[in-house]
Design goal:
Layout (H helix, E strand, L loop, with lengths): L5 E4 L9 H10 L4 E7 L11 H7 L6 E7 L7 H7 L3 E5 L6 H10 L3 E6 L17 E5 L14 H12 L5 E5 L7 H7 L3 E4 L9 H20 L1
The structure holds 5-O-phosphono-D-xylulose (5SP).
Keywords: Carbohydrate metabolism, Isomerase, Metal-binding
Cofactor: Mn(2+); Fe(2+); a divalent metal cation; Zn(2+)
InterPro entries: Aldolase_TIM, Ribul_P_3_epim, Ribul_P_3_epim-like, RibuloseP-bd_barrel
Length: 226
Amino acid sequence: MTTKTLIAPSVLSADFSRLGDEVEAIDRAGADWIHLDVMDGHFVPNITFGPPVIKAIRNRTKKLFDCHLMIAPVDAYLAAFADAGCDSITVHAEAGPHLDRSLQAIKALGKQAGVSLNPSTPENVIEYVLDRLDLVLLMTVNPGFGGQAFIPAMVDKVKRVKAMIGERPIRIEIDGGVSPETAPLVAAAGADVLIAGAAIFRGGGEDAYRDNIEAIRSAADAARRT
Ligand SMILES: O=C(CO)[C@@H](O)[C@H](O)COP(=O)(O)O
């Protein structure tokens, strides 16, 4: 959809003891969006943070807060995440029970609506909700943890989703194992937004984050041009 690849650092790999400072650092380092991984210890085998933490860091940047809800059930919590300052809210198709209802609720809250698919979930589950979507987040690792290896079979899925979307203004986001080595694969297949945690939050500071963001972006943009 976009001509330039957008980079969304996942704060899952940030230093949580200095989360507000880390958000400011990735903002200054060139992040396009700030990716927030919310995990409940039920839908995924890890627990992170919820609306109070998001609200506490909201005033540290003006960049888009891209909220990825790995929680089930989800509908009862959508308003709290909207109120906390999330700009886009993505729910998992697998979290259920009613994906179409969840997407309608997100739009009614005035937020961008996204759906995420685990690696094993076929893309056809989004066929009948495409017209409610602003983004599709394709997991390229199994959700729950940062620093896992990219699953190469997902490149074909990116191509299939790109074809399904057609001319609709829906962004494809990629999440898991994104690095300068894997970014070209998904960018060439049709990805618009690359989420990365471990590959950005290494080196421990703003200058390293800037280099890491630029390395992913330039590798992706070069692949898009070829
Ligand atoms: O949603 C998730 C994990 O469930 C991701 O956002 C990861 O946090 C990406 O981390 P890296 O694989 O880039 O380290």
